[in-house]
Amino acid sequence: MTRAGFVALIGEPNAGKSTLTNRMVGAKVSIVTHKVQTTRARIRGVALEGDAQIVFVDTPGLFRPRRRLDRAMVAAAWGGAADADVTVLLVEAHRGITEGVERILEGLEGIGKGRIVALAINKIDKVQSEKLLSLTKDLNDRYDFAETFMISAEKGHGTEHLKQWLAERLPEGPWLYPEDQIADLPMRMIAAEMTREKLTIRLHQELPYQMTVETENWEERKDGSARIDQIIYVMRDGHKGIVLGNKGETIKSVSKAAREEIEEFLGRRVHLFLQVKVRPNWLEEAERYSEMGLNFKDGNK
Ligand SMILES: Nc1nc2c(ncn2[C@@H]2O[C@H](COP(=O)(O)OP(=O)(O)OP(=O)(O)O)[C@@H](O)[C@H]2O)c(=O)[nH]1
């Protein structure tokens, strides 16, 4: 009998949710960078473990929402946890119980009793093992976790054990996705995320936070290659200059790096065309939200 179900990963921004998803799925699906709050969409990866298919909901970081976009992200994160069969809370070993973790623990009480919630203490490669025991105890005193795991998502320590445990907790039933499908995100969105990741890396400190990338057009060509047109939306004229760079240098190198990654992902040639547009109001435009897999209404609070 096969099993299948949803596992929601929750945790503070930067806790390692994307890294863990990628590790479990075994392919790069969600986007990992050193910048916080990179995951805007509810990206899922599908992992196989024996007869089980585990669908990971890689929720956006949970934090105190201020603007509309932030509120929509937090609503999406809690929505993901409430719909899931199993929830895993990721806590960073070296940071321990921060204010953000406290808030998530409070939020957990609200998603309903009888849910399976596991604790994964991540980045154990960064701390001494003695510290882990007291952190485990403190966290379990505050919430009745079904199980505690000590992992390093990056190094792969303890992640196999966690994956097996999760697989056993899922309900019996047919698989939710075809075997060869690793992400239910449309390719257009994955390609846009890849470009956004390259921009994030390249611009680093200069990065306009209010920036988004959308795939506008995707054309399959007869020779097997794909032509992909993407638009980078920024809020101000000044930001446009930053993204373009001196003599277009920045956008050129971003375009090259993104193209290479998309080609590797698709396993074929890609012609990538990037355009930068100024859209002062994109944060308030409903269409932008659905492109990111978020619900615009969730920001209305
Ligand atoms: N040392 C160490 N670093 C890790 C580990 N897991 C993740 N990281 C690093 O922590 C940073 C954040 O990881 P992400 O996976 O992007 O975190 P996230 O929770 O998805 O972040 P958001 O998308 O902002 O919510 C990255 O630089 C990772 O390389 C780990 O086990 N050990």
TrEMBL record:
Residues 11-18 are annotated as: G1. InterPro entries: G_ERA_dom (IPR030388), GTP-bd (IPR006073), GTPase_Era-like (IPR005662), KH_dom-like_a/b (IPR015946), KH_dom_type_2 (IPR004044), KH_sf_prok-type (IPR009019), P-loop_NTPase (IPR027417), Small_GTP-bd (IPR005225). Keywords: Cell membrane, Cytoplasm, GTP-binding, Membrane, Nucleotide-binding, Ribosome biogenesis, RNA-binding, rRNA-binding. Residues 37-41 are annotated as: G2. Residues 58-61 are annotated as: G3. It comes from the Bacteria. Pfam families: KH_2, MMR_HSR1. GO terms for cellular component: cytosol; plasma membrane. Monomer. HAMAP family: GTPase_Era (MF_00367). Residues 151-153 are annotated as: G5. It is a peripheral membrane protein. An essential GTPase that binds both GDP and GTP, with rapid nucleotide exchange. Plays a role in 16S rRNA processing and 30S ribosomal subunit biogenesis and possibly also in cell cycle regulation and energy metabolism. This is GTPase Era. Residues 122-125 are annotated as: G4. GO terms for molecular function: GTP binding; GTPase activity; ribosomal small subunit binding; small ribosomal subunit rRNA binding. One of its GO terms (biological process) is ribosomal small subunit assembly. It is found in: Cytoplasm; Cell membrane. SUPFAM superfamilies: P-loop containing nucleoside triphosphate hydrolases, Prokaryotic type KH domain (KH-domain type II). Residues 203-280 form the KH type-2 domain.
